[in-house]
Amino acid sequence: MANFGYTLMCEQTAPCDLVDDAVRAEEAGYDFAAISDHYNPWLVEQGHSPFAWSVLGAVAYATQNLELMTMVTCPIRRYHPAVVAQQAATIGAMSQGRFTLGLGAGENLNEHIAGAWPHRTQRHEMLAEALEIIRPLLAGETVHHGGTYFDVPEARLWDRPDEGVPVVLAVSGEDSLALSKKLDGTVAVAPDASLRLPGKPAYGQVALCYGPDESECRKRALDQWRWFGLQWPVLAELPDQRAFDAASAFVTEDDVAAAVPCGPDLDRHVAAVRKYVDAGFTHVALVQIGGGHQEEFLAWSQSELLPALRADGA
């Protein structure tokens, strides 16, 4: 049976509310919580973007059994890889081993605030080198690294969980999948069985827009989620909210509703999640679109959605 997660979507929710939502998610029966790690929201309408690692620290302290993960952190521009390792080790220690570090090659929207945005080929080279620093640090080694992109004269982590921190990688094609083979699993945003590794965890993510009024949900999804259909090659390169707004200007309500289940129909939401389970994903994180609609979603998750997913054999 798959594990089901709740997504702490920083782009649409204030930091204290995210912590409260995580506590409610644990009470509702979710197995894990995934958090986005961005400097900016995609659209002005979303309205938030607190520092994910501060939120994670509070969530680790406020919950007891909820597994935690980043979905995902980019370790090549905004953060130095040694700092990412320290962040991950600290959350791993605070949560008593409940944390998984999800990594990816990042997006211009978030990473260019600390320097120029490299070409795709260079970003993958930087990511591969970053892993040469992060993995041994998390394993308790002292690292001396002089590379093409990063220098670490000497570093070790003084606080980390005894069992280490699992590392999973966001994948979208052959290059990233090849790199992930050295790691502990994969993350993907499409229910594609080829984007997972045999015998290792595979994390997926599904956007939903639950509410009693389908028409209102469709409008909310268009307002805050219309960027989602742009696909990864575009998402990774657009620099700011104006660019995302322009690129998604011709997306219609019907376009978004065709990709995102909207409204109260339980079967439609279950069917969207089942695509990932049928593709062999072991973990599926759910995103409820709309920062002000989390409490009703979590109550519905507890009473209807999670029981239906588990009864469905997902």
Automatic annotation (TrEMBL):
It comes from the Bacteria. Coiled coil: none annotated. Pfam families: Bac_luciferase (PF00296). Residues 14-180 form the Luciferase-like domain. GO terms for molecular function: oxidoreductase activity, acting on paired donors, with incorporation or reduction of molecular oxygen. SUPFAM superfamilies: Bacterial luciferase-like (SSF51679). Signal peptide: none annotated. InterPro entries: F420-G6PD/mer, F420_G6P_DH-rel, Luciferase-like_dom, Luciferase-like_sf. The keyword NADP does not apply. The keyword Hydrolase does not apply. Keywords: Oxidoreductase. This is LLM class F420-dependent oxidoreductase. It comes from Dactylosporangium siamense.
